[in-house]
């Protein structure tokens, strides 16, 4: 029993990772699955696609590694959050597809709930700072209102990684970290709120009593073993929500440990023994995979995907290693991109930005500007926007002179230097990087299987791969530009708010 397997269920696909029980990686297999957008605000995935991805990737991982399945002691999963999979009386999956974390169809249900519950009290209790309609309780209220035939058959509701555990073991379970995204979880007391469940009109029985992330859910059944290639009886550990698993895999457990995740979207998360709650800026908080700790985060909805947008629209001629070529072009533009500023809110504004109605924009374009200026402005704009978010949680960060950055954006040395200059911190890219959630789930599996007593061994696994110190001259220039950036996006938010209000007024007038 020298290995564990971790499953990282992301939005775009599943990464299965094989790890030794000392936490070192032996390789990964990635299997994609699709997100469907059948209507505006509807973002769905098929739970059976997740299970197929587990079965296919597990078999490939075992085959390519040559590891005897009998040597795999346990598995654990990290799952994307805010998902509710309805299961029937006999364990059957009741729907083909389910809303994922970004689905926002339940706006009316959220409005109905907050007619009874004070929003600020709800937020300060749950830490659920993303748009309310994305949280599980409102998705269940929507299911009850619009699909009563399915809802009436529902016995249990599972999160994404909990569904995988169910397929492996036949056991229904969840952990505290995933339960904290339900919309009815009290962060301070680590339990569900009876009053919030009552206000939702849902049965208390739908909310599975959570357990520790490293708890044993069950063992792989003969049927599951035949499908995925694991041995019958392999331990299945409960696992955790992706935000908390990524925090564990990036920084380990400790008070004030922080990182920036720079992918299609981006967030800054800090682990601490108290949740960071702000009724105006609304950081979103999850219970950590270790009881007594929390991971609090601030975010922007569009980050590296704005650079992809630039590649598709401004750089169709760059076909060989396009992002490196784009970085080379951007490096030809000076600090401040020759007067251009870029706001990256192309997917709307987060709760930490001046308005949820905020949209992407360029400022200061002149006939003298070149493509290189636009590309640099995009990279700078993402860093400026995240730097404003960072100030919300700065007080909780223990080591305030360094920042770990992980995710696809961390591949760009040029971008990392921009972050170092704008954050005014040493930027560290660690060896874990894009495998953070996978390592976090593996650590949970190793602990759950009894090889580790806590997560302290993770600290010995982290190694600095690259680091970037602020350049004093650049830092000073960016400090001034950052003030202009804040003034600009604040004014921009007012314009977008007014435009939204006028559109609503126009619609009301038409309906009359």
Describe the protein in words.
The protein is of the alpha+beta class and 512 residues long. The chain has 3 domains: 3-238, Nucleotidyltransferase, domain 5 (2-Layer Sandwich), CATH 3.30.420; 251-302 and 390-468, 2-Layer Sandwich (Nucleotidyltransferase, domain 5); 304-386 and 472-511, ATPase, nucleotide binding domain (Nucleotidyltransferase, domain 5, 2-Layer Sandwich). It contains 16 helices and 22 strands. It has helices spanning 47-65, 107-114, 119-126, 136-146, 148-151, 160-169, 176-179, 194-200, 222-228, 242-251, 304-314, 322-330, 371-393, 413-423, 436-448, 472-511, and strands at 3-9, 13-20, 25-32, 44-45, 72-79, 85-88, 98-99, 154-158, 185-186, 191-192, 216-219, 235-237, 240-241, 257-262, 266-272, 284-287, 294-300, 341-343, 361-363, 402-406, 426-430, 464-468. Strands 1, 2, 3, 5, 11, 12 and 13 form a 7-stranded mixed β-sheet that branches. The chain has a 7-stranded mixed β-sheet with strand order 16-17-15-14-20-21-22, with helices on both faces. Strand 9 and strand 10 form a beta hairpin. The protein starts with a strand and ends with a helix.
Pairing-aware structural class of the strands and helices?
alpha+beta
Low-confidence stretches: none
**What's the number of structural domains?**
3
Number of beta-strand segments:
22
Q: Helicity level, as a percent range? A: 25-40%
* SS summary, helix count: 16
What's the CATH first level of the largest domain? Alpha Beta
The geometry reads as globular
In percent terms, what proportion of residues is strand?
15-25%
Rounded Rg: 23 Å
The CATH homologous superfamily of the largest domain corresponds to ATPase, nucleotide binding domain
Largest sheet descriptor: 7 strands, mixed
CATH topology value of the largest domain: Nucleotidyltransferase, domain 5
CATH architecture annotation name of the largest domain: 2-Layer Sandwich
Q: What is the straight-line distance between the termini?
A: 71 Å
Question: What is the average of the pLDDT values?
Answer: 95
